[in-house]
Design brief:
It contains 3 helices and 8 strands, in the order βαβββαβαβββ. By secondary structure, the chain is of the alpha/beta class.
Length: 123
């Protein structure tokens, strides 16, 4: 078994896609106005319309309500990413710190409140 996608359900596909294009520095691959995806080295992050999700599985999701999942991205240089995102006006939830287990990381949220962690393993 292999996890291939992580999907965010939202009322704002365009807004969230534009945010992720800036943050991930990847151009979204879209299918109409209701779906976008960002291929990465180990899977795809997709953005999906709440209204379309409702038509497929009514009551199965609630956009903008995630408070228990973090999307984690291993980046080449977390310090450089922190400075780059700071210039974009990203508000950080956890500042850039080195954790006892050897990750240097920071947390921030997308416009829907989904948490992201950018990190680099350090010695």
């Amino acid at each position: 078994m292999r996890l291939t996608h992580s999907c965010i359900i939202t009322n704002e596909v365009k807004k969230l896609s534009e945010f992720y294009e800036k943050v991930l520095q990847i151009k979204a691959e879209t299918s109409g106005d209701e779906y976008a995806e960002f291929p990465t080295d180990c899977g795809i992050l997709s953005i999906f319309s709440f209204s379309l999700q409702e038509s497929l599985a009514k009551g199965s999701s609630l956009p903008g309500s995630n408070r228990n999942l973090i999307l984690e991205f291993n980046v080449a240089n977390v310090d450089d990413e922190y400075m780059r995102l700071e210039k974009l006006g990203v508000e950080f939830v956890k500042p850039l710190t080195t954790q006892p287990w050897g990750n240097r990381s920071f947390y921030f949220q997308d416009p829907d409140g989904n948490m992201l962690n950018f990190y680099t393993k350090v010695k």
